[in-house]
Design goal:
Layout (H helix, E strand, L loop, with lengths): L1 E5 L6 E4 L2 H16 L5 H7 L1 E3 L7
Antiparallel strand pairs: 1-2, 1-3
Length: 57
């Protein structure tokens, strides 16, 4: 299972096996692209768990 987050304001999407990595990348993205600060808990609340084996073809 991987962790995925999609930005509601643009096309940014990140997926990783590490939830902590997703949080870090989303927080960096929000600051750099949208001049926003997003709390760790807010990011974690928006993370979806996805089955990456379904993507392998």
């Amino acid at each position: 299972m991987a962790h995925q987050y999609s930005c509601s304001a643009c096309d940014f999407m990140v997926r990783s096996e590490s939830e902590d990595e997703v949080v870090e990348l989303v927080q960096n993205h929000a600051g750099e692209k949208h001049d926003m600060t997003v709390g760790e808990n807010d990011v974690r609340d928006g993370i979806e768990n996805v089955d990456v084996t379904a993507d392998a073809g």
